[in-house]
Amino acid sequence: MRIALYQPDIPQNTGTILRLAACFGVSVDIIEPCGFALSDARMRRAGMDYIDHVDWIRHSSWERFLEQRTPGRLVLLTTKADQSLQKFVFEKGDTLLFGRESTGVPADVHDHADARIAIPMRKGLRSLNLAVCASIATWEALCQTGMTGTRHDGTADAIPPGPV
User: Fold this and answer.
1) Whose CB has fewer CB within 10 Å in the chain, the N or C terminal residue?
2) Helices (H) and strands (E) in the chain, counts
3) Which pLDDT tens digit goes with each residue over 17-71?
């Protein structure tokens, strides 16, 4: 399971998602250009010392990401989705792709996705915060694929260290 961030705009969201990934053992792809320097103090502060515990790769462009990405489906989280999160069936090799906070992803990126899903929410509201969306979708994907570290009897095992 991987998270891919397409040209993120807000350093605090990226730092929070890196922290999320570190805690759940999920790898992250950051597709540049970003709307901030990856060394930004706001990103570091949001990720705190967790950034050193996540497997993350910088890609200089969308094209480089496509060349270097791991096998598996590319699942785009978007408000322009074919289906909702609760009806989608995740697979262990999925990469969850999230667009820019300001504009989402362009049509060519949209077209590369193997699936497009949305998190259902109340009508009339535009969207969730990117880090919140990444958290909800990542947890659902990990639960569906049995990668959460939770036993069937409801008791928890520790999530294995390192990338999953």
Assistant:
1) C
2) 5, 7
3) 999 999 999 999 999 999 988 886 777 777 777 888 999 999 999 999 999 999 9
